[in-house]
Please model this.
Amino acid sequence: MKISPYRSAMVAAALLAPTAVMAGPAGKWRVGDGSAIIKVHDCSVGLCGTIDMIAERGAKDENNPNPAQRSRSLMGLSIMSLQKSGENLWQGTIYNAKDGQNYSAKLTQTSEASLTLEGCVADTNLCGEDHWTRVR
Model:
C-alpha cells in the first residue's frame, strides 16, 4: 500500500501540532454564591488567594477564633495557600471567614473558566465543595 505525500504531510502536521494548554488558575474568580471575588496568584508556596472584592462593605474578620484579629478587614486578606499536586490540581489550606476556620483544600481547574474547590475538616471526611467562575 502506497501512502500519498499529501496524506503523509497531513499526518505529520497533526502529530506535530501543539496541543491546547489550559491557562493556569491565576486571575480573579467569583465564588459560588457570588459574595466575593478571590484573586488567585503565584506565590512562594505555589498558589495563593486573597479576597479582592466582598459584597458586604467594610466586612471584618469577626468570626476569627483569635479576638485580636476580629477587627481586621476581609478585603485583601490572604485566605488560600496551595501547592501543585497534579495536572490542574493544587492542595493546601484555605481560611473560611464565614466561620473563622481553616480547612484542608483541594483546588481543581476544570476548564479555562471554572475551578472546583473542596474544603475538608482536617483528618475527617467532612467536606464541602464550591464552584468558582473566572471573572477575568
User: Anything to note?
Assistant: The chain has one domain: 22-134.
